[in-house]
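Step 1: inspect the first sequence and its tokens.
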Amino acid sequence: MTDLQNTPSGMRTHIGFFGRTNSGKSTLINALASQDVSIVSSEKGTTTDPVYKAIEISPIGPCLLIDTAGFDDDTVLGEQRLKKTRRVAKECDIAVLVSDDGSLASDGEILTLLESLSIPVIRVINHISSPESLPADNSCVIHLNAASGRGISSLKEALKEAAKTRMKPSILGNLIQKEDLVLLVMPQDQQAPKGRLILPQVTTLRELLDRHCVSICITPEELELTLKRLKEPPKLIITDSQVFDFVYEHKPESSKLTSFSVLFAALKGDIPTFVSGARSMADLKPGARILIAESCSHAPMEEDIGRVKIPTLMKKKIQNDLRFDVCSGKDFPEDLSDYDLILQCGGCMVNRQNIQSRIQQAKRQGIPITNYGICIAYLKGILNHIVLP
């Protein structure tokens, strides 16, 4: 299989296309993808639910193009479509705001929303009625005709420049150097398909290989035996948060310790905010309400980490009388005022902007937010003894 087929959605650059109905968003996406991704019609409100297309755009790499319903959709279901469009905006790394031959002034509402998310916005005028003679591009606006393909190269160049500002940071940062010995302790997750590793493990291992580290992968059962056989202690031990305390008790004093979830908290989230959120658990009162925010949809397992293990640990360590709600996939509430704490998963299946949007939303509403790995480290009493990228 090719990299295009294998690259998870969460590791792609998300590019959303926004604008009024019939401004040419779907036609533009089809031109970029060189195939019919979205249905194109002069009928108002043709695009209903967001349409996603995974493609490769050189030199950006793996991308996810997202077509959205028009902001001025006044059909019966228009408000529901608009809600989904706003939700898509929160997960985009780059936004393309498409206007037709008319005035750019009518796009003020859309532009305000996109700029509030602190993402690059590329403004495009799609000259539907005058495809042969396009004005020269300027620093603010790209002129093109999506139907004929004229000007598409200018858009690709703008996307390339915008993507440079959204480069994904390293997973391991300065925790390791070339030729360091790194031990990965990986209990096999019941939710992972048989014969495969979960995404955080794969992504971390790939960076270790790219950075020419000496990597050893084991399960917790082999930890003590492996440490006895090694001539020198590992520079870094990376483990699953669920066995944090076990690994901490057995690791050499000189070995640094972290977890896959903590690494992803740094990669996609905000470590200081998550640490602050975890420490706020000490102030939870009886009857406090916690939102478990899963970024992917899955059938809950008997020993589900977010729905079972963490709530059980929190009730035992902090307060027995706690209430838990769960949201999964993209169903993150707009109003968080009913909650005393938000517990976000590692976010391995979504992009960084998606997690950042949730963090900013929680901050605006004054609700503490933390991450599975940081939370577990706090509850097990070792948050001060692990390394945070």
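Step 2: inspect the second sequence and its tokens, then contrast the two.
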Amino acid sequence: MKIAYLFPGQGSQSPGMLAAFEKEAGVIRKTFDEASAIMGRDLWALAQQGSAEELNQTVVTQPLMLTAGIATWRVAQARGMPAPNYVAGHSLGEYSALVAAQAMAFADAVGLVEQRARLMQDAVAEGEGAMAAVLGLDDVSVQAVCAEAEIGEVVEAVNFNAPGQVVIAGHRQAVSRACELAKQAGAKRCIELPVSVPSHCRLMREASEQLSEHLAQIAISAPRIPVVHNVDVSVSSDAAGIRAALTAQLYRPVRWAQTIEWLRDQGIDRYVECGPGKVLAGLNRRIDRSLQCAALIDDGAIDNVLAELGANA
């Protein structure tokens, strides 16, 4: 059996996340303590007591989700989950994947994603950007309505998550126009996302150039586990390739559906989501209903996966 571990990005956070883990609660808290020391604030208290609005702020969400992903990964290791053949992360989740693959130190990644978040937040004035999920329209049609809706502003298809589910981002008014055009073109729904920046569109180009400078100062090693970059569905074995992928990722689309299809074509039998929620497991089933997906949201989920893997050994 071949396994891929997947790490979610922004959008999977929620108040009280990871509190359901009890068997390895110490591993969770130790991971959050490490990140808290770097951030200068109690991330565990924030995760448990912060409001949804506070957790949705990019400068909070990014270090929090990185920490949650690595905490879940460490719990999985402590519980004896098998090593993966590949790892991948959705957008921000790719940083968790790189830490899991030992290409980047956790401490370095915490500081880096905090800088990434601040660069993204500063790139567009608060309230001027937006993101929305377009449901029930094919990729080409979404791209067409975005092109029609721009009118001197920016709106682009930025997350190709699954067939019939594409996220768009850009200037708020342009996103609104694109949503109206998408509905006219046959979209079932357009849902504005609770995020504070328009990620993965060209409004982030300047932020990506600044991020590149920070990346140059971070030690990056060859991954011990192959990491699939979602910006171009490639695997890099050297620091230069990883830095280039992370820089481009900031202003180019997340090709999640293609990432999962590529992993399937490599013979991956099982997909394990490491982090709060079940967003990626849900997307993967929309991509291919035959895929075996599990989200490690609590001790019971890990127990179930271990039992299934043992039965199939």
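Step 3: confirm your contrast with the notes below.
The radius of gyration is 19 Å. The first helix runs from residue 25 to 39.
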